Amino acid sequence: MMEMVVTSTPLYAWMNTLENISSPDNQTDEEYEDELANLRHSLNTMSLIVYCLAFVLGVLGNGVVIWVTGFKMKKTVNTVWFLNLAVADFLFTAFLPLSVTYTAMGFHWPFGKFMCKLNSTVSFLNMFASVYILVVISADRCVSVVWPVWAQNHRSVRKASCVSLGIWLLALVLSAPYFVFRDVGASYHDEDIVNCFNNFVFSDDYETVAVVELRAFRHQAMTITRFLLGFVVPFSVIVSCYAIIIHRLKRNRTLASHSGRTFKIIAAVITAFFLCWAPYHIFSLIEMVNHRSAEFSDTLDHVTTIGIPISTSLAFLNSCLNPLLYVFMGQDFKDKVRKSILKVLESAFTEEVSPSNTFTNSGITSRSKEKSFSDAEV
Known about the structure:
CATH topology: Rhopdopsin 7-helix transmembrane proteins
CATH superfamily: Rhodopsin 7-helix transmembrane proteins
Radius of gyration: 24 Å
Low-confidence stretches: 1-25, 332-338, 356-378
Number of domains: 1
């Protein structure tokens, strides 16, 4: 049953990993058990605090964003993007009480197999949906800066809504394996405790070599796929888009002045996502490599023991950060104190009036707009 650490999603695998730490030679078994218990208690307490904080701030903050962008503001391409990002985060944080209960009960899952599957699926649905919405936002900003006239004529709320639907379908496909493989079973240490874990071979057989290898292979495949499609590829696209945007803005200061506020907000959201999710993916890879290695490293095991719960908590926090970023970067701090939440969020999400918008309002044709933009870049 020690192979369970391989079958567990890194979200909860650190609890099982604790059991694999070997006692140092200079410690008695009692001293080591006490140290292990204290470490487990500290990590559990930290996780509970973070989960509760993310739940309260995430549900309230994202709920307000959904209310404002969905019902109080005029529909624009920007509001469609941020509405979908808020829905993804709200959905995830709404399920956090399940994780809080699971952790508080010593990793006993009382909610049944279906909720075990659904809870894990929602977690990764949030991750994939969020990162690909950020990809689309970055691409949208890049097109708006590089080809402003084309963007002005072709960007629409309807197209943005269709793209958002496509993102949700893609995220659902990528997160579906977690629904398939998630399972519940009695803990190896206490039959009265039911764990929620990944059972990649739908079997309790941890002895047969072929079964163990298949389990390890599927675990490796899912970890690498999640790292590539949920992190490396999306952020490569995002970085490329922003490199192009920065290059163009340096050449055109007029365009830079019009794009400043939204550019900073989007850049902050993307940076927060990167900082919150990068450690999670890194520790997941370290854990996978260590358990696939012929020589198991106690040092790496200790690193993941501490790193996985911290990085997981950090990833959870990302779902409540975006509303705070919208508020604190939407306008100057003094104005935020005086204005209502609605006005602050409207300031954060309102489409800027680009040079092309100004020309359109003046009744100038597309041909004239192209000439004007060309002149502006000279």
